[in-house]
Amino acid sequence: MKIDEIRLRHIKMPLVHYFETSFGRTYSRDMVLVEVMSEGVSGWGEVTAGENPFYNEEWTASIWPLVRDYCAPRVLGKELASAEDVYPLLSHIRGHFMARGGLEVAVWDLQARLHNQPLWKEIGGGARTEIPCGVSIGIQDTVAGLLKKIETELADGYQRIKMKIKPGRDVEDLRAVRKEFPGIKLMADANSAYTLADTEHLRKLDEFYLMMVEQPLAHDDIIDHATLQRKMQTPVCLDECIRSAHHAEQAIEMGACKIINIKLGRVGGFAEAKRVHDLCEKANVPVWCGGMLEAGIGRAHNVALASLPNFTLPGDVSASKRYWKQDVIVPAVETTARGTIELRDGVGFGYDIDKVFLKSITIREEILN
Q1: What angle do CA 362, 366, 368 make, to 5 degrees?
Q2: Digit-coded pLDDT (tens) for 294-325
Q3: Domain 121-342 class?
Q4: Which one is the CATH code of 5-116+352-368: 3.30.390.10, 3.40.30.10, 2.40.50.140, 3.40.50.1580?
Q5: Counting Cβ atoms within 10 Å, is residue 92 exposed (0-12), middle (13-18) or buried (19+)?
Q6: Could you tell me which of 174, 178, 229 has the C-alpha nearest to residue 199?
Q7: pLDDT, tens digit, 9 for 90 and up, residues 224-237
Q8: CA quadruple 322, 324, 329, 332: dihedral sign
């Protein structure tokens, strides 16, 4: 296939409820969507960077010039044997995996549509027809509010609860949750809020029999996580510092984690996500699909990814209504009463674009050819 045109859209969507992590609150999402065209067919991608460079070095305003000036020229007009070609074409761009990934996943969606098959099948997924779903709950104003929020999510059938934590909002919050919900699948996500000096404090998490504690230490560290894991019973899950299959290989070899979170944007798209998945599967390290407050396109891509066989733990793939009053896709992503999302058999990522709504929330648009 040959990419004839790339269209960038900057959209803004207010969240139903603010989302707080260790580095602040988010009330709305500014996102860049990438549409790639070949032979009159469009494929769609979503860049998952946040509004600020806090999760990693990327943020919404950095995405536009990066994709326009560096990523797009390396793909436009090129004869691609497959979507696998995109990652190496962009690989000499240092970092900026989310910008690169937004374009890469759009080409995978395009390829699936040209082959007239679902995206999950195009990437080699389909190990399960229903994706087990968990939810990520931001830091709430009060413990009572946290307990109420968890009660609501469990009533909706979600199979796993992930709590955001930070110093001062960790042990006591977890103790209250475990007292109220002693049998639920529970994990904690620190988003790099601690250091190795906090080891004794973090060891207190062992009493809550958590599934895992996610990325407790620095975003770019593997060595300290290995030290911490040796001193904790709770499995460490790595997120921010795993940007490639090579990073995953190093972390596993060093014993820095027992679980790995795979995010499409963080590793630059489907090709590298599959390599991380395959490496972890070979090493008997389970993986799960992380979320970045995606709109419907990114959410649908996550569903396809999570159908690969080693995604054995419930991920952060949940219903559109948890975040948006209206989504950019129709129908919206929905969960079953079993706390799962069913794979769809439609071509590409399996949903239609709500073009009228998309136009209403578009701040700017640029066509590259």
Answers
A1: 145
A2: 999 999 999 999 999 999 999 999 999 999 99
A3: alpha beta
A4: 3.30.390.10
A5: exposed
A6: 229
A7: 999 999 999 999 99
A8: positive
Q: How confident is the model at residue 92 (pLDDT cuts 50, 70, 90)?
A: very high
Q: What own/partner pairs with CB < 8 Å and gap ≥ 24 does 280-286 have?
A: 280/248, 280/252, 280/310, 281/309, 281/310, 283/252, 285/248, 285/252, 285/257, 285/258, 285/259, 285/260, 286/259, 286/260, 286/310, 286/312, 286/313
Residues of the chain with CATH 3.20.20.120: 121-342
Cα atoms in the Cβ-side hemisphere of radius 13 Å centred on 49: 31
Contact (Cβ atoms closer than 8 angstroms) between residue 266 and residue 239 = yes
Q: Is 263 a catalytic residue?
A: yes
Q: Please choose, from the candidates 12, 4, 34, 9, the residue with its C-alpha nearest in 3D space to the C-alpha of residue 100.
A: 34
Q: What is the pLDDT of residue 13?
A: 95
Using only C-alpha atoms, the chain has a radius of gyration, in whole angstroms, of 20
Residues of the chain with CATH 3.30.390.10: 5-116+352-368
Asked if 146 and 177 touch (Cβ cutoff 8 Å), the reply is yes
Catalytic site residue from 162, 164, 166, 274: 164
Give the span between the Cα atoms of 255 and 269, in whole angstroms.
25
Q: E strands of the chain, at which residues?
A: 5-21, 24-38, 41-47, 130-132, 134-137, 160-164, 186-189, 213-214, 236-238, 259-262, 287-289, 329-330, 340-342, 352-353, 362-368
Q: Which of 263, 274, 282, 355 is catalytic?
A: 263
Rounded Cα gap, residues 322 and 334, in angstroms: 10
Which of the four pLDDT bands, split at 50, 70 and 90, describes residue 356?
A: very high
How far separated are the first and last CA of the chain, in Å rounded?
Answer: 15
Following DSSP, what letter does each residue of 270-289 receive, concatenated? Answer: HHHHHHHHHHHHHTT--EEE
CB 80 within 8 A of CB 20: no
Q: What is the pTM of this model?
A: 0.95
Crossing angle of helices 270-282 and 245-254, rounded to 10°: 20
